[in-house]
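Tip: read the tokens left to right.
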């Protein structure tokens, strides 16, 4: 468990960044595995599927961090040694 805390959860989006690559955000795995944090992948809002503009099919919700880390349109999640390098 200690080794994973040094890694990063990378969420790749269906959106693209200014370089034309899929937009990615990352958060430290230490945040993800901490049971005090309420990080989630959401696919419904108020009992209904997310509308496209709010992040359909999946949205990463990370309370307590800058809004850009709450990625919309999540297409994949990976665990990486490196932080995501997307630019807006």
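Filled-in amino acids:
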């Amino acid at each position: 468990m200690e080794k994973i805390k040094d890694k990063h959860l990378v969420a790749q989006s269906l959106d693209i960044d200014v370089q034309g690559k899929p937009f990615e955000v990352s958060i430290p795995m230490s945040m993800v595995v901490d049971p005090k944090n309420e990080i989630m992948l959401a696919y419904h809002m108020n009992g209904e599927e997310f509308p496209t503009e709010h992040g359909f099919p999946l949205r990463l919700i990370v309370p307590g961090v800058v809004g850009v880390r709450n990625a919309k349109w999540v297409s994949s999640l990976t665990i990486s040694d490196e932080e995501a390098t997307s630019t807006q």
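The mean pLDDT is 88. The two ends are 32 Å apart (CA to CA).
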